[in-house]
Amino acid sequence: MLNRILQSVVTVIGASFLIFAAVFVLPGDAIDALVGDNPVSPEVEAALRARFNLDGSLWDQYTGYVQAVLSGDFGRTTDGRNVSRMLELAWPVTLLLAATAWILELVIGLGIGIASALLPGRLVDRLGWALTLLSLAVPTFAVALLLQHYVGLGTGLFPVAGTRAGWPMAYILPAAALALVGFGSTARLTRVSVANTMDSEFVRLARARGISGSRVIFSYILRPGIIPLVTHLGVSFAGMLGGAVIVEAIFNLGGVGGLIVNAVSRREGSTIVGLVTILVVLVAVINIVIDLAYRFLDPRLRTTT
């Protein structure tokens, strides 16, 4: 596990540098976006670049940025806003949205997948297959717009913009948009995994010993059957953090999505790098959690290093 943590640290450092380098080589920067077509003297422009640490080489800018971040300072935007404060307000919204969507995907996907595996060829199996294909074919933004118009505006039961209503009301529709797009893969993987486990020799032996059907299902089929899903579910949560950008923009949630859009339009590289670097850190943490979940579900892995 220590090796895994060290690998994650190296990955985060390497990813942050690559992101910083990608932003560095793009034409223009935050000062160009701030000045626009207005005539500015070379002295003023040089002072602005020095203020925002944009006058050095790639390595100088990166090392200065890392030193500031390690001290908890993500800098300021060109209009004077504190980036650390912006991140503090935006990330909880995105994390809460992704967590809500992940729980919905987990409940819907596992439920349909398990029911389809236990009742093959029945109505629930055919319905699950149809819903799976539909979820894989429809893009996230289309589902979000449909839910916003027909469920939000049509029924008036759910807010269609902002987070003023709080959790869960303000997050139900955007989270459902994220979950409905991803639950298809979870449902199909669950069905295949559980169906394969049902045909295992240890399951047949358990039934031959007269163990009750409910115990066979929960202890001998479902627990080992969901082990292959751990990686998928972890990657799915990480994907929702990225997919939340689009949904947040549609529902105007004020999360990371809005910050990224504004940072790109203003060419504020430090803000972009900060947002994406935190996302990389979260993905690395998710991978470590996946390893721990594997060890919990499969005792054979607990003896390995």
Write a compact overview of the structure shown.
The protein is mainly alpha-helical. It contains 13 helices and no strands.
Secondary structure layout plus pairing:
Elements: H1 2-25, H2 30-35, H3 42-51, H4 58-70, H5 83-118, H6 123-137, H7 140-155, H8 169-198, H9 201-208, H10 213-225, H11 229-251, H12 256-266, H13 269-297
Helix pairs in contact: 1-13, 5-6, 5-8, 5-11, 6-8, 7-8, 7-11, 8-10, 8-11, 9-10, 11-12, 11-13, 12-13
Structural write-up:
The protein is an all-alpha fold. The protein has 2 domains: 69 residues, no CATH class; 221 residues, Orthogonal Bundle (MetI-like fold), CATH 1.10.3720. 77% of the residues lie in helices and 0% in strands. The longest helix has 36 residues. The protein is elongated, with a radius of gyration of 24 Å. The N and C termini lie close together (6 Å). The mean pLDDT is 78. Belongs to the binding-protein-dependent transport system permease family. Keywords: Cell membrane, Membrane, Transmembrane, Transmembrane helix, Transport.
